Amino acid sequence: MSARADNADLRLTAKGHAAGVISSSRWRHFSDTKAQLDSLRELLESHSSGSQSWIAKGLPVRNDTHRRNAFDLLASSSITTSTLLPLIPALASYSPVLLARMDIEGTYAPYITQQTSTAASMVRDEELKLPGDLDYESISGLSFEEKRALERVRPESVGMARRVEGVTPTGALRVAVYVKGIGRRRERESMVKESVEGMGISEEGLAVA
Q: From 1.25.40.10, 3.50.50.60, 1.20.1440.230, 1.10.10.1800, which CATH number describes the 5-118 domain?
């Protein structure tokens, strides 16, 4: 989502400049464009309101308790910088090309946020240990081939599971979610046990109760 043709200049020009392959004139043009895009986004983000306020201004916003800034609104296919122009007159100081680029940035923003969050989660899960007796048959969503491959290899961590031939990234993610669920259940059970013991109630007494 972040590596798109429309933002290639923003992603690659700085690297090209660092490598010494970008001319001075192109670098100045890039720097000016980036500064204007940053300024435009800051302008949009500075206008924040609750749903009722946006709706009262005629915008098709979901009626909930969330506050949204004007940049957030661009995620909706029915809202563009042109839609927002009557509400934010300062947008008129930016070129149509820059406004169109910001429309695209706003459209992709939620997906990029989700992509970044997923990638960060995958990095955190890389070292997550897998029980040696993990029952892969109990993990919903794993294909037959993935279950057989994991049972055969018995990876020690989620990172190793991702590298098992036949296991998809989605399959490895399902394993991580399942194992973290086991950990949360055990933690809750431990807290309940400690609470019960603190009240001086035996497990037998709790069962009778």
A: 1.10.10.1800
